[in-house]
Design goal:
single chain, alpha/beta, six-stranded antiparallel sheet, elongated
Length: 319
């Protein structure tokens, strides 16, 4: 098929690579403008842009697609381009810009979105983070016919995936990216053959995955241990859970559930034991065992290495 692809991060790059490998003609890639990144804050092309350049695909990086928005010239230029190309479909994966109606109605078969959840659960910007944070047992990918709502379109294909106790947002992201790419290729095959079937999203079970804010990564030790462990996994690799001890903000990369330990409010965040296998902290009626930590300016270290360089004592308390 003759496709326009809209996406920005690695999740989208995997999908674009799969479409190209399947033999589709990608005539245009839309991706976010280059952003400052790294210590030098140099402008950096998105993973999708880098792949498009590698394959010599035409690129557009509009700051907005709203004809009545802040950058109408960007929107008008993109509109002219899309009208000229007359694509069969647009595939969208983690693009980052809202598509107005003039975009949705442009391709022959419309716009298809790869969404990293089983809709209508976790509509919105951060479905992978929120599924882990909530302790969901499974998630998946939905291929959706896009409409003007926020992830409200009809479903064309969906497949579930278990969330393992060892999964972080990073590991689950990679699995869902591969699954989403495969399902998108299958969906386009059905669109081409005229066998695709649409299913309206259920009206029950709607939840929203709000964008992740860095302040959410601060650990609150008055929570149940299980909730803290879920958040540590959800915020790995971004924005990374953190807590303060002796005036230092420590990043917590990995943690696991400890035993039940009734505690009073005055003990939340207190170090109960220090061992090479982990640092045990008191939480609400339970314990959290920190197994991978990082000091400011230091490296990520397993607990066994971390405790050799940080004089931790039983009774010290995290803020």
């Amino acid at each position: 098929m003759k496709l326009v692809f809209a996406g920005t991060p690695e999740f989208a790059e995997v999908a674009l690579a799969a479409l190209l490998a399947a033999g589709h003609e990608v005539v245009l890639v839309l991706t976010q403008p280059d952003r400052p990144a790294g210590r030098g804050l140099k402008l950096q092309a998105s993973p999708v842009k880098q792949l498009a350049l590698q394959y010599g695909i035409s690129l557009a990086q509009p700051r907005s697609l709203r004809l009545d928005g802040k950058y109408p010239q960007d929107a008008v230029a993109t509109q002219t381009l899309l009208q000229t190309l007359q694509a069969d479909a647009m595939v969208v994966a983690a693009y980052g810009l809202i598509l107005p109606q003039w975009v949705l109605g442009n391709p022959r078969f419309g716009c298809f979105n790869i969404h990293a959840s089983i809709l209508p659960r976790w509509r919105g910007a951060a479905p992978i983070h929120r599924a882990i944070e909530a302790g969901d047992a499974s998630t998946g990918v939905t291929i959706m016919q896009m409409d003007a709502g926020l992830d409200t379109g009809d479903m064309l294909m969906a497949q579930t995936l278990p969330i393992l106790d060892t999964d972080t947002t990073g590991t689950l992201h990679d699995k869902l990216a591969q699954l989403g790419a495969s399902l998108m290729v299958q969906t386009l095959q059905q669109v081409q053959s005229g066998t695709v079937q649409t299913v309206q999203q259920p009206s029950q079970g709607i939840t929203y995955a709000n964008k992740i804010d860095k302040h959410e990564a601060t650990i609150h030790w008055a929570q149940p241990a299980q909730a803290i462990v879920w958040r540590v996994r959800a915020f790995n690799p971004f924005p990374v859970a953190n807590t303060v001890l002796a005036g230092e903000t420590l990043k917590i990369w990995a943690a696991q559930l400890g035993g039940a330990a009734p505690t009073s409010d005055s003990h939340f965040g207190t170090i109960l034991s220090v061992a090479h296998t982990g640092i045990t902290i008191a939480a609400m009626n339970s314990e959290v065992v920190l197994t991978e930590l990082q000091r400011p300016g230091g490296k990520r270290l397993p607990a066994a290495d971390f405790v050799r360089g940080f004089d931790l004592q039983v009774g010290m308390r995290f803020d």
